[in-house]
Amino acid sequence: MTVSSESSPGTTPGSSPRPAGAAGPAGAPAGDTDASARRLAYVTVGVPTLGFAGAVVFAFHYGISAVDIGLLAGMYLVTSLGVEGGFHRFFSHLSFTARPGVTAFWGIAGSMAAQGPIVFWVATHRQHHAFTDRDGDPHSPRPLEDGRRFPRVRGFWHGHVGWLFTVRRQNWSKYVPDLMRNRLVMKINQYYFGWVLAGLALPALLGWALTGGSARGAAGGLLWGGLARIFLLDHVTWSVNSIGHTLGNRPHRTRDDSRNVAALAPFSVGGSWHNNHHAKPALAHNRHTFWQIDIAGGVIRLLDVLGLVSHVRYPKRARSE
Q: Which residues cross the membrane (predicted)?
């Protein structure tokens, strides 16, 4: 499937769909809170936070080894590419096409990031593009003008992580009819919690194997390559939602407050060129000038050269370089 280089699902220029079950006026929620999503949010946010704290305590007592660092870096790279290259550019914006094996890689790697199943992640993101920084945007960091104190701080917190606790009950499938028809994607979505557990078990097993079968190696792999990695990637992704609509430069005049945040570019594998993305959301590259770091875009280009993906949508500059 391909789309226009200027638009993508839920972002057709000039369209003004009505929000359903998202944030209401001035960011105030409307409708019934999804209780199951709220409970999942406590796990999604709380467990990695405790895990990161545990990793720090573990390092204080046992040190941090090269294996720990390697597993953190390796698992972070794979799952960040799964989120930015897979969940975002591939599944959300259909920026390129891929065969089933590559599709499965993107879906599994993104699921191992523990940011939600494919259907939820993509539906939320498409809703964000349809109503960016307006009523209906699930995670806009707009000031919450409801008469209470610190509207900017509370709005920023909502855009960063607070929105996860106020997700409204709604039919997510209406934002992702293409994914609902894809048996492979729905099968990966069905086993989401299994992929999350695999993302924890894999670094633990590698840590055990790379240290000669030691319990310390397994624990270090679980804490640093698993829980701490999820915590760090979560906050990088959420920072694109919050900081990326609050601070940074705006080379493109979009209808929203999206901004480029250069400092986050290496850690977000290119996702923080957010104003670039909102200007041309269907492109597979966020790099609009030669110096902008876009690791996900580079990987997509490599896969294109190898013939593993096709119909890749490039910016004109990137295509000519």
A: 40-62, 69-91, 103-124, 191-210
Q: How many residues does the chain have?
A: 321
The two tokens of residue 31 are: 């409708």
The verdict on residue 276 lying in a domain is no
pLDDT tens-digit readout, 152-209: 999 999 999 999 998 887 788 899 999 999 999 999 999 999 999 999 999 999 999 9
Tokens of 311: 């119909």
Are 109 and 81 within 8 A, CB to CB? yes
Q: Is residue 95 part of a domain?
A: yes
Please name the residues in contact with 91: beta carbons below 8 A apart, sequence gap of 6 or more.
Answer: 106, 107, 110, 118, 121, 122, 179, 185
pTM for this predicted structure: 0.88
Domain that holds residue 93: 27-140+151-259
Q: How many domains does the chain have?
A: 1
Q: At what angle do helices 229-242 and 66-81 cross, to 10 degrees?
A: 40
